[in-house]
Amino acid sequence: TMNLDKSLETSEDSGLPKLPVPPLQQTLDMYLKCMSHLIPEEQFKKTKPIVEKFGAPGGMGEFLQKKLLERSEHKANWVYDYWLEDMYLSNRLALPVNSSPVMVFPKQNFRSQSDTLRFAAHLISGVLEYKSLIDGRALPVDYARGQLAGTPLCMDQYNKVFTSYRLPGPKIDTLVAQKSTVMPEPEHIIVACKNQFFVLDVVINFRRLNEKDLYTQLERIRKMADIEEERLPPIGLLTSDGRTQWAEARSVLIKDSTNRDSLDMIERCLCLVCLDEPSGTELTDTNRALLMLHGGGTDKNGGNRWYDKPMQFVIGADGCCGVVCEHSPFEGIVLVQCSEYLLRYMRGSPSKLVRAASMSELPAPRRLRWKCSPDIQAFLTASADKLQRLVKNLDMNVNKFTGYGKEFIKKQKMSPDAYIQVALQFTFYRCHGRLVPTYESASVRRFQEGRVDNIRSSTPEALAFVKAMDAEKMELLWTAIKAQTNYTILAITGMAIDNHLLGLREIAKELKLEKPELFSDTTYATSIHFILSTSQVPTTEEMFCCYGPVVPNGYGACYNPQTDHIIFCVSSFRESAETSSDLFVKTLEGCLKEMQDLCIKGNTEAKPTDSTEKMDGNTKVMKNGSKS
Ligand code: COA
């Protein structure tokens, strides 16, 4: 195994530009602009001089900026390592709900156990097909859509889909990767069934198993899992715990060589296939989302997982299917691409199975063994309790808004994404009477090794709009949409502030300098406490993505805009008295309707004279973020 960022598979020869380091003053101005209306005036009065001091000529900011520029010269992407650590690897929270997004597939109708296994074998065939496209560098390059459409995007994230593993550590995790090769090497998948883990070899004697072989092997696994006397404790539960706790448990686990072997097999697998027991709950969209996010807890399928692995395909006997994804190696967009490929593959290529089970010469799949000391038992009990609490805590609402979709918004000559973001701000304001630091993921895959930066959607213009309740509203909606669209363009061209501030903070740490006051100021802490965490994850197949809130008193809001409807997946925690997903969604429906009425009314009234220069996606943005 090797460290990912040292991988030779960088995109240097992709011809993509490097991520720029934004000008210091631009970032500092933007930071103040983003925060001034979100914090008390008194606090802002303290923060402003701190920021000015940081940015003063000859000051700390200039020095760190120079260091960052130097760093950017010898790295393909100056922020990648910092960002990966900050966003994922140093985060100690449990992966389920807090970090791992899921993809929820359309509900399947399995009439029998063999139906379920047929589906699993078909899906695994698709996975192997997709993996060989990745390994053969045969995936078509993605191109940007929407704003500034048409430029090619960095494809690095795909190489990590079936090769990486997030190893827990006491203070920080490590993202490790297998070297991928074009030659068919021994390869395996881990099948989880009844909280047991089985090794399913998919390449034997340089030959990839066909679907019929896979089916036979899955049936054998199913039979082995059914033998009650051989059942081992649900070790997978440990991976659902906080990262520090799991790291501690793992360090005890690896003292035994049997456990070491089992861990090694899991860490080197392509992916997991989790054959889930029926959940016994009605499979509404919301319930399927919940089951995918945490497995329904210890009495359902909570232990039938291994959260460190990037891809876990869940196939429930009751038809509840989807993917759980460890987020650190790639973004939701890659998850969507892979999932859509699989669904299309399964629809387009008829299952290659004959009915009768074949007597196979293949070696039997192997059950992974665990030696469970009393210490490990204690860790397991603690992990189980933690998961149960998380299950009780998650408040989820998946809602298909059918009032209108992208088409209506485009007819208003507005960016659908910006419009939805303004609607989310409006909703938050209605529910809570204020705006809060908001995160919207913006892809920076236009650049080498690009991941994401943040669009801070709670703009001053959004606040002005949501506060206004008079005739000026339409004008203010326009202004808010423009501000949001401008920020989006800044972000996707590498000129947003979050990655830059992170870079300045981390390079100071790296140089062992005293932490600049800017970063110990409460305003900075507030600015990165994302009460509203949002993301557009569009799909072309019938499925949806969702995830949990990133802070205890916050919301996760994932949306999937379609032509005539928009799917919203809103999550929050029940333990917070401030939040309610149901209320948020209900309010959102009302807000979207009000905005529609406003647009329709606006259309029938005299248009503002400058209406011809409305957003056209090509709007040029000057360095300070205003439109030219
Ligand atoms: N008038 C008419 N149509 C417009 C318009 C306007 N003023 N502005 C945009 N449109 C059109 C676009 O041309 C596009 O058309 P298409 O459907 O034919 O492609 C469509 O509306 C959507 O564009 P828009 O809503 O502006 O958003 P976008 O697709 O550019 O998305 C981001 C914006 C920030 C979401 C996107 O750039 C991004 O970064 N996506 C990745 C997010 C991510 O990583 N998610 C996963 C995180 S795990």
From TrEMBL:
Protein name: Choline O-acetyltransferase
GO cellular component labels: cytoplasm; neuron projection; synapse
Active site as annotated: H327
Annotated EC: 2.3.1.6
Compositionally biased tracts (Basic and acidic residues): 607-617
Position of the signal peptide: none
PROSITE patterns per the UniProt record, alphabetical: ACYLTRANSF_C_1, ACYLTRANSF_C_2
One annotated GO molecular function: choline O-acetyltransferase activity
Domain named Choline/carnitine acyltransferase: residues: 19-589
Species annotation: Sinocyclocheilus grahami (Dianchi golden-line fish)
Family per record: Belongs to the carnitine/choline acetyltransferase family.
UniProt KW Transferase keyword: yes
